[in-house]
Amino acid sequence: MHPVILALVPLIMVLASCTTADLGVESKVSPSRYGDADPQYFGHRHPAKHPVHGVDVSKWQGDIEWDKLRQADIAFAFIKSTEGGDHRDERFAEYWREAKRAGIPRGAYHFFYFCRPAREQAAWFIRNTPNDRSALPPVLDIEWNHHSKTCKKRPKPATVRKEMAVFLDIVQAHYGKKPLIYTTVDFHEQNLEGHFANYQFWVRSVADHPDNVYRQRDWHFWQYTGTGRVPGITGDADINVFAGNAQQWKEWLAHATRRN
C-alpha cells in the first residue's frame, strides 16, 4: 500500500466510527421516541420532546396487541367508529373493548362525509358509539377526502362551518362532553382559520411543526406521522403527542373524562 494511504488509514477509521453529532453536523432527521418508516426533520421542536404520546387507529391497523402499546407508554388512543351516515369501522367494538382492558384511555372519532347532512351523521355516530363515562371526548375528523370515489363535493367554507356546528352540538348534547376537532393543514387554512376558537383541536402536520403551519390556532394534540412504528401494531401507525407535560396530561384527562 502507498505510504500516504497508510498514513490516512487511522483517520478514515475514526471518521467511520463518528456520528454526525460527533462531527458537529446537525442531523436532518429529528429524534423520535418510536420508529418511523419515513422520518421527518422538525428541528429543535421535534415530537420526541413531548412526554405524552398516543395513537389513532382504524381497521387498517389489523390485529393490535394493546398490552404491548401500554407497555410502550402509549398514553391514549383515538379509534375510528363511523364515517358518513352508513359506514362503521368493523374493528371499532373490538378496539374499544381491548383498549379499555389494557388501561389505555380511548376516544372515538367520526370521519365526516360531505355528501350527507350533518344531522344524519351525528345520529349515526351516536347509534354506533357507546356513551362511556370513562372515554375521552368524541372527535369530529373534518378534512378533504382526496380519495373518495363517491363524494367529490367541496362545500363553501360557510356551509362547512354550519354543518360542523350542527354535528358538534348534537354530539355534545348526547355525550355531555365537548368534542375535539381533528383537521389537516389545507382544510384548516381554507375553512377553519379564525373559527371554532372555543374548541380544542387535534391537528395533522407531518412535515413541519404545527405552530409554523396553523395560523390563529392553539392545539392540544399533534399527529406528526402516519408511518410510525410502535410495539403492538404491525406496519404503519399514526402517532400523536399531547401538547403539555405529564402533569398537564393528568389534569386534562381528569377534566376531559368528566361530563359537562
Question: What labels describe this entry?
Answer:
alpha/beta; TIM Barrel; 260 residues; 10 strands
Describe the structure.
The chain is of the alpha/beta class and 260 residues long. It has one domain: Glycosidases (TIM Barrel, Alpha-Beta Barrel). Helix content is 32%, strand content 20%. The chain has helices at residues 3-17, 66-71, 92-101, 118-128, 157-175, 185-192, 210-213, 246-256; strands spanning 35-36, 53-57, 74-83, 87-88, 106-111, 139-141, 180-183, 201-204, 221-229, 237-242. The radius of gyration is 22 Å and the shape is globular.
Q: TL;DR?
A:
This protein has 260 residues and is of the alpha/beta class. It has helices at residues 3-17, 66-71, 92-101, 118-128, 157-175, 185-192, 210-213, 246-256, and strands spanning 35-36, 53-57, 74-83, 87-88, 106-111, 139-141, 180-183, 201-204, 221-229, 237-242.
List the helices and strands and how they pair.
Layout: H1 3-17, E1 35-36, E2 53-57, H2 66-71, E3 74-83, E4 87-88, H3 92-101, E5 106-111, H4 118-128, E6 139-141, H5 157-175, E7 180-183, H6 185-192, E8 201-204, H7 210-213, E9 221-229, E10 237-242, H8 246-256
Parallel strand pairs: 2-3, 3-5, 5-6, 6-7, 7-8, 8-9
Antiparallel strand pairs: 1-9, 2-10, 3-4, 9-10
Helix pairs in contact: 4-5
